Amino acid sequence: MEKAQSDKKAWFWVPSLYFTEGLPYILVISVSVIMYKNLNVSNADIGLYTSLLYLPWVIKPLWSPIVDLFSTKRKWFFFTQLFISIAFLLIGFSIGTSQFFVLSLALFWLVAFSSATNDIASDGFYMIGLSEKQQSFFLGVRSTFYRLSMITGQGLIVILAGYLEQRFMDNHKAWSFTMIVVAIMMLLFALINYFGTNSAIPEEKNLQIENEEQDAKPRFIEIFVSFFRKKNIGVAIAFILLYRLGESQLVKMTSPFLLDSPSVGGLGLNTNEVGTIYGGVGVVALTLGGILGGLAISRHGLGKWMLPMFLALNIPNLLYVILAYYQPESIYYVVPVVFVEQFGYGFGFASFLMYLIYLAEGVTKTSHYAIATGFMALGMMIPGMISGLIQESIGYTQFFVWVLLTSFPGFIILRFLRFPTDYGKKR
Q1: Distance (Å, rounded) from C-alpha 62 to C-alpha 59?
Q2: Is there a contact between 389 and 44 (Cβ–Cβ < 8 Å)?
Q3: Of 355, 63, 406, nearest to 233 (Cα)?
Q4: CA-CA distance, 132 to 57, in Å (whole number)?
Q5: What would the pLDDT profile of 246-271 be if each residue is shown by its tens digit?
Q6: Which residue of 92, 167, 278, 370 could cross-link 154, Cys pair, CB 3.0 to 4.6 Å?
């Protein structure tokens, strides 16, 4: 009876907690690109500065012990979510100023650091508040609602901004209102998460677990060092950094490509169309690809699918070369390209995540997985920083050709990667 009651409570707070974890991330990393493009920021600046926003997720393992040492996970995620709400409100007000780019970018930085901290606290509460069996059961639920946050961010919020652009005929005013709406949403979810988890786990039990965790914190440096003592760690890190080399640049320039006018090599779509494509078709394809990728690995193991999934991630980028070359006027040519590319990304990313799980195996797998995902974020950040500069130098068609060529280093490193071929296979 007690377990059933606990499950009912978890059904209330797990979905909202992970929706709130995904929403600020997608707004910082993806929606900011669309916003700045519509506010006439250059592609070079968009690529450089929005890619730097990955940095908090790169280095978040460095301050994760602070979240463990002080206060409770529930208070951490409540106050970080509250701070994110305030930051988005200030972003909304800053957009109407003459220094909107500098001000909004600084506030996005604060959102990024708070969001990375919120990830640590939310994941920690998930592990504390649920038993091991419950964690496994709700894994799909948290993943689903994280995906729904992407649909909301890349889809509904972008569509709202597009609607307001057409109504106000003023992009600054439209995005200012949009960010204020986001701030209100984040405030509501912060309150829902705080009070929704209040009875999920007694506060005194939370504090007791926190105190027990403090005794293990001096081992943090040892845990960090042990990651770099893993066998073939140099090849593993090179793989993490190179596997998504092409995609890390593509993801920063696809929205500018779709929004730019045909006179500069773009397709001339409006904000509503981009929001509908990526928030609807794109997320559906991404989810399907991820599900099928996971099923494929569980059936045959990682060894059989590593190369096919790498190709699935990179070959669809050729379609953007074709789009840039022919510049079709109809949106109906764009939709299947985005579907195939996002499906390939979801399918191909499954093998990458499975390898990270393998790399983190051991007693300290939680910490090692956090370090591995930090390198993953670094692999997205550095190439993305120069993507806009490259695109402006050579044009969209040649840029997408360049993206294809940058997949070759990852292809080469696959030959040197070592892992059990049946890893991940369901037994």
Answers
A1: 6
A2: yes
A3: 355
A4: 26
A5: 988 998 889 889 989 999 999 999 88
A6: 278
* Pair of tokens at residue 138: 């709700």
Whole-angstrom distance, CA of residue 197 vs CA of residue 125: 9
Pairwise CA distance, residues 153 & 27, whole Å: 6
The angle that helices 302-314 and 334-359 make with each other, rounded to 10 degrees, is: 140
| pLDDT score recorded for residue 216 | 46
Residue 266 has φ and ψ, to the nearest 5°, of -90, -175
Residue with tokens 């946050």: 149
Other CB atoms within 10 Å distance of the CB of residue 211: 10
Residue 215 neighbours by CB distance under 10 Å: 8
SS3 content of the chain, % helix, strand, coil (to 5): 85, 0, 15
Residue 340, phi-psi category: left (phi > 0), alpha (psi -120 to 50), beta (remainder): alpha
At residue 204, what is the residue type?
E
DSSP assignment of 351-395 equals: HHHHHHHHHT-STTHHHHHHHHHHHHHHHHHHHHHHHHHHHHHHH
Per residue in 363-379, pLDDT tens?
666 677 778 888 888 89
With H, G, I as helix, E, B as strand and everything else as coil, classify residue 418.
coil
Non-local CB neighbours of 300 within 8 Å, separated by 6+ positions: 425
pLDDT digits (tens, 9 = 90+) for 288-317: 887 788 788 888 888 888 999 999 999 999
Q: Which stretches in the chain have pLDDT values below 50?
A: 1-5, 202-209, 212-213, 215-218
Sequence-distant (6+) residues with CB within 8 A of 126 are 14, 17, 135, 138, 142
Task: Please name the residues in contact with 40: beta carbons below 8 A apart, sequence gap of 6 or more.
Answer: none
Spatial CB neighbours of 322, under 8 Å, sequence gap ≥ 6:
337
Angle made by CA atoms 79, 3, 74, in degrees to the nearest 5: 5
Helical spans, DSSP H, in 169-282:
171-196, 203-214, 220-227, 233-242, 245-259, 271-276
**Angle CA 78–80–83, to nearest 5:** 110
> In degrees rounded to 5, what are phi and psi of residue 131?
-75, 170
Q: At residue 383, what is the residue type?
A: P
The CA R_g of the chain, rounded to the nearest whole Å, is: 21
CA distance linking residue 262 with residue 268, whole number of Å: 6
Q: Could you give the 3-state DSSP secondary structure of residue 97?
A: coil
Which residue, 420, 427, 290, is CA-closest to 351?
Answer: 290
